[in-house]
Amino acid sequence: MFQGLLCFGFGLYLFFASNPLLVNEINTIEGKGLNPLLQDPGLAFHPPFLYLGYVGLSIVWSFALAGILEKKIDKNWGSYVRPWVVISWVFLTIGITLGSWWAYYELGWGGYWFWDPVENASLIPWLIATALLHTTIAVEKKGVLINWCILLAIMAFGLSVIGTFIVRSGLITSVHAFANDPLRGVFILGLLSLYTILSFSMYALRIKKEREEIHLKILSKETFFIFNNLLLSVLALTVFVGTIYPLILEVLSNERISVGPPFFVITVIPIALLIAFLAAIGPLLAWDKNSSKTLLKRIILPSVLTIVLVVIIYKNFLSLTALSVLGILIGIWLLSSSIQNIFQFRLFGFKNWATFLGHSGFALLILGISFSSSLQNEYEGTLKVGSSIQFKDYKVEFLSVKEFNGKNYISSIGKFNISKQDLNYTLEPEKRYYPAENSLTTEASIISKNFSQLYMVIGEKINDETWVVRIWHKPFILLIWIGGIVIASGGFLSLSSVFLKKQIIKSFIILAFTLPFIGLFAKEFNPEIEERIHRINLQIRCMVCQTQTIDDSDAQLAKDLRAIVRQKVIEGETEEEIFTFFRNRYGDYILMKPPLQQNTIILWLTPFLGLLFGFLIIYRFLFYKRIRR
After folding, report:
1. Where are the beta strands (DSSP E) in 373-499?
2. CB–CB of 94/49 below 8 Å?
């Protein structure tokens, strides 16, 4: 019934607002062609996987409303709905991982996540789906958190529709928005309003009639699921508010601010690390009550191992930032705890292996982000054919540039020799021009070894033999995508009893763990002046690209602003003086980090208010009821 209602609504949307069968009244000899950025095999997989995840969440939504209507939401309902939650979550995980990888190698910015509105639009439902995934376990095993599970199911689907609205409406500027249409946005908003009113009306009636009594022990798996859900929900709320806040503020006050990576790093990363810390403890707990002494015994070994490894790593990489050290600490803690949970306590069932893979993948993701963000090195400058530079321990020789005519583009391919001791590599980055679209793109050239990568792009042509070149060395960056693969593998494995056979699973796990083990490793150093310039560039918005920093953008204005930053740093100006210069010239919108002032106080308080509200609710259930009893 509810799937039929959903299909009917989106059928109307296709017919009236986005009919793919309409004939174009303008006859053209040659079409404009597909956006060059989309002419990549990765785009044949990334959007369909996200779409499958969204469709799966619609089925979960239908299960929730059908359960409310039939008044049959119990442990059996949890066992029926959980496979759909898992498979939706797996598809979203794969889609987000593929999208990150595509942006990394195709866009030529050397980055994998930009906190762009379209990226956030897929991340928010994934966070809620992750909370829902854990909650369905509690419903299936213990019959608790049923009302909260229904609410998450409704929210997950609603947020996926909001994500579609953000992508297609054009209201929010995004580097990933390739097909905007305000009419389609209004239609989607109407459908969202209709389904939201229906869902929450039915949910409110259930809450009014069937109040759920929860009796939990503080040190139990159920309680840790609640904390997990609280933190994931606050994380989703923070990303959501940070994404739409500039639009709301501009509509209400006609003021423009930027909410970019600096805001999300400050507010999101600490909560994510806290989730990872608790994720290491949760699997060690049993349902109902646990002994604190038993728990302490179980965490001693991973705690000692974590401290020893972090000390060794820090001594070898002194340039690590405090936040990166914390990320590495928690990543190793989660990984070692997950390994102990499997092998020391011999929990070899499919479900336990699924938990191990999911949490271990999360740990690898954290380690990849922590190492690569803190230890990466970058060179940007001009090189003449026949010349060479020393980049870290590598000698980079510019050998030649050749022209190549593709099917629908003209390419300038640079040939570089990279040498280090007895090792020699050839990199061939490209600069492509698409005449039909009148656009330029960069094609990065990458070499990998030991989880690390050397990444090169070729920029503008200065004269016949001189080109702008950018080179990055990114230590352990492959751990990010390996982590995504391992996380998705855990999801597939949890479906083993329903969909998969043992031999297929074993082959899949072996393939997932052995294929990506390639790359490059070297010790790091970072000149102080280049580090300052890089740090400042990451705080300043490119006014042409909107959602990119001037450090990422290849636009001419971004290059000019980078030159200004470099000059001011060399002249000895402080970061605050440089930021003040740009604010006076362009306004607060130029800075990616929104200022803490009256019109942004709600934005900055969102994660703290969310945590406070959630902890008050938990206190009401856990502590207040115990005192009354």
Report:
1. 377-384, 388-391, 394-405, 410-420, 423-427, 430-434, 439-443, 445-449, 452-461, 466-474
2. yes
Q: Is residue 209's pLDDT more than 90? A: no
- CATH 1.20.120 domain extents, the chain: 1-23+41-214
Tens digits of residue pLDDT in 440-476: 888 999 999 889 999 999 988 888 889 999 999 999 9
Could you give the CA distance from residue 125 to residue 89 in angstroms, rounded to a whole number? 9
* Among 187, 179, 238, 225, residue whose Cα is nearest residue 47: 179
Overall fold of domain 1-23+41-214: Four Helix Bundle (Hemerythrin (Met), subunit A) (1.20.120)
Find the distance separating the first CA and the last CA of the chain, reported in whole Å: 44
Pairing mode, strands 423-427 and 430-434: unpaired
Q: The dihedral of CA 69, 71, 72, 78: what is its sign?
A: positive
Compute the distance between CA of residue 127 and CA of residue 58 in angstroms, rounded to an integer.
16
Helices (H) and strands (E) in the chain, counts: 18, 10
8 A C-beta contact, residue 540 and residue 588: no
Class of domain 529-593: mainly alpha
Alpha-carbon torsion (56, 60, 62, 66), positive or negative: positive
3-class SS of residue 432: strand
Delimiting residues of CATH 1.10.8.640 domain(s) in the chain: 529-593
Band of the pLDDT at 587, cuts 50, 70, 90? confident
Helix axes 350-375, 261-281, angle to 10 degrees: 140
Q: What is the pTM of this model?
A: 0.86
Residue of 197, 190, 127 whose CA lies nearest to 156: 127
Task: Return mean pLDDT, the chain.
Answer: 83
d(CA 373, CA 363): 15
Question: Which tokens is 596 given?
Answer: 């803490």
